[in-house]
Write a structure and sequence with these properties.
Elements lengths: L3 E4 L3 E6 L2 E6 L2 E6 L5 E5 L2 E2 L2 H9 L3 E5 L5 E5 L8 H39 L6 H17 L3 H16 L2 H4 L17 H22 L19 H8 L2 H14 L5 H4 E3 L4 E3 L1 H16 L1 E3 L6 E3 H18 L13
Parallel strand pairs: 1-5, 2-6, 5-7
Antiparallel strand pairs: 2-3, 3-4, 7-8, 9-10, 11-12
Helix pairs in contact: 2-3, 2-4, 2-8, 2-11, 3-4, 6-7, 6-8, 6-11, 8-10
């Protein structure tokens, strides 16, 4: 996890010379600033303006999560890579090509759901074939018929609904998803989905920070003042193969158990600290795992694949090269 640091317990962050100091239970833990690109803070973590100034100068992004393990916000240093030309063209693309790019994102989600389910079909879970057939033979047509973003969002919502309905086929009964509930999650599988999606969103936010793209101008999701909406667009395609693949592996291999790794209250369900650390480690391993890139002809990690999608979007914006999101089936 070299460039990523996780603060998973209560304490205080401060600057100490050229290091970051985390004080917990009367003890200091030092985090070297070298090679640190992002910090994740869970629970109550205090910090001061002196530290923020230091982190800003070193271009370190800090993500904050609330009590329910949902994303709260990000300390985003001054833009490191600024391009007036790309900003103008990104706005122009939003005005002229928003629906085209948004359609590509929804099709990309479908492709990665298809290959995620194909794994279970090959292992005897033939019931997932119904959703795979829908993706192959109906989704593309429905996407192309959409005349506006709200209509396309309905198709996307239906796609995720179909995907969620397959979980009972290959997950243990205690992790079956009856209904997607987000704020706060109300059962173990909702807790995992919310936490995983929040982490992936934050990861994508950091990756986009290291490109020339403007976070505020998105295509599938409506640009919003309180969130980096482009991160929602870019991360959406990777959810099936990063967030959900991590969840399915941890649950089916019994690395996460309902009675050991979750805190259940009347109105919510959360991962406990042990469970959270297990999930974070598995997600990082997934992001750093590599595959042979079909076009680059060398190994690429899933983290790098997210950045490559950012560059593909830039080429769509500047060079009018069609934006085709990452497809795990083709690994390109």
């Amino acid at each position: 996890m070299g460039s990523t640091k996780y603060i998973t317990s209560m304490g205080a962050l401060s600057r100490k010379d050229n290091s970051i100091c985390f004080r917990k239970d009367g003890k200091n833990i030092y985090i070297p600033i070298e090679n640190t690109k992002e910090i994740y803070c869970f629970g109550e973590v205090s910090l001061n303006s002196k530290l923020l100034d230091f982190l800003g100068k070193e271009n370190v992004v800090v993500h904050f999560f609330n009590y329910y393990e949902g994303y709260s916000g990000t300390f985003y240093p001054r833009e490191q890579y600024m391009s007036g030309k790309l900003l103008i063209e990104q706005v122009h693309a939003f005005e002229q090509k928003r629906l085209k790019i948004a359609r590509s994102i929804v099709i990309g989600i479908g492709e990665n759901i298809y290959y995620t389910l194909e794994h279970y079909q090959k292992h005897g879970k033939s019931q997932v074939g119904e959703v795979m057939h829908y993706i192959r033979h109906e989704l593309h047509g429905q996407v192309q018929k959409c005349k506006d973003i709200p209509e396309l969002m309905q198709v996307e919502g239906d796609l995720w609904y179909r995907f969620y309905n397959t979980f009972s086929i290959f997950l243990p009964e205690e992790f079956v998803l009856n209904k997607r509930v987000k704020r706060p999650p109300d059962n173990p599988i909702n807790a995992l989905i919310s936490f995983g999606n929040s982490l992936l969103y934050a990861k994508t936010t950091t990756i986009i920070y290291h490109t020339h793209l403007d976070q505020r101008i998105s295509f599938l999701h409506t640009p919003a003042e309180r969130r980096f909406s482009l991160s929602l667009d870019i991360s959406e395609v990777f959810k099936p193969i990063i967030t959900f693949k991590t969840i399915f592996d941890l649950v089916n291999r019994k690395r996460l158990k309902v009675d050991k790794h979750f805190e259940k209250n009347l109105n919510y369900c959360l991962l406990n600290e042990v469970g959270r650390n297990i999930f974070i480690e598995a997600l990082e391993e997934r992001l750093e795992s590599t595959f042979e890139h079909a076009k680059l002809h060398h190994k690429v990690s899933y983290r790098q694949a997210i950045k490559l999608d950012c560059y593909k979007l830039i080429k769509e914006i500047l060079e009018d090269k069609p934006f085709i999101p990452f497809n795990i089936g083709e690994k390109q």
